[in-house]
Amino acid sequence: MSENALSIRGLRKAYASGTEALKSVDLDIRHGEIFALLGPNGAGKTTLISIVCGLVMATGGEVLVDGVHWRDRYKVARRQIGLVPQEMNIDVFEPVWNTVAFSRELFGLPRNDAYLEQVLKDLTLWDKRKAILKELSGGMKRRVMIAKALAHEPAILFLDEPTAGVDVELRKEMWEMVRKLRERGTTIILTTHYIEEAEEMADRVGVINRGELILVEEKAELMKKLGRKILHLSLAEPLDSVPSALADWAPSLSDDGLTLTYEFDRHAERTGIPSLLSAMRDAGIAFKDLDTKQSSLEDIFVGLIRDGNAETRA
């Protein structure tokens, strides 16, 4: 077994138009981890996945799948990978069982009805195994897509926006399935617009923007290093604007002037909170209550993208 489940080196994708979808991406994915790849639309997430899965040709670079070069030994490398794409690509006139079984046959694997039965049961599809796909709801079809991707028992599973368009209940059931897969040793790489999912599920987070991987970090470490705390002060009387006496702290007003918000670095030697409260007292601004919260992964992500775009424009 190689040190990493997936090793990507200098991966590039450029089109004849001159557009660079990927700009020399380097990335290692560990065995058995859940890695969340975040980025806005058009950032390069799907391009990266499509190249690794052999659906799109790279302009340059290489990929090793558990140490196996993904071009030199394509069949061996591809056998290790399962993909759940964004778009539905299933024959809607086939029964669920036939669709999943055929996906296994495509990889030349021997028949294993017990394994496929367990996959369908884990995805709450067993009772639908004889149903024609066109009769299923959108959420059920999404489950079939996951079952197809798991049919050949891959060691690495790519989930490209797997819960887009499904309801909250189904989303929770799908993520329970992801947890079970990770417990069995499957490596999961996911893209998602539901950042709370990445915050809850991922071991590590990567942020890609304009074809560049701008950050890869342990989720907990990312929250520790980049997360800021936010102080909310509920005022006794509304303010029309932030008084000049508080300008040094650059607080903001909300809730019709009844909430004053101040962001601070919790790791800083001085947070500025005591001096802010003192300045408020001197200015005659009373508050009824206060609370603090840690910034979320979404706050961090939005800030990274905003800063990256600002640097590009500069």
Automatic annotation (TrEMBL):
Q: Kindly give the SUPFAM superfamilies that the UniProt entry links to this protein.
A: P-loop containing nucleoside triphosphate hydrolases
User: What keywords appear on the UniProt entry?
Assistant: ATP-binding, Nucleotide-binding, Transport
| Coiled coil segments of this chain | none
CDD domains assigned: ABC_DR_subfamily_A (cd03230)
Q: What SMART domains does its record include?
A: AAA (SM00382)
Pfam families membership = ABC_tran
Domain of life (superkingdom): Bacteria
Annotated protein name in UniProt: ABC transporter ATP-binding protein
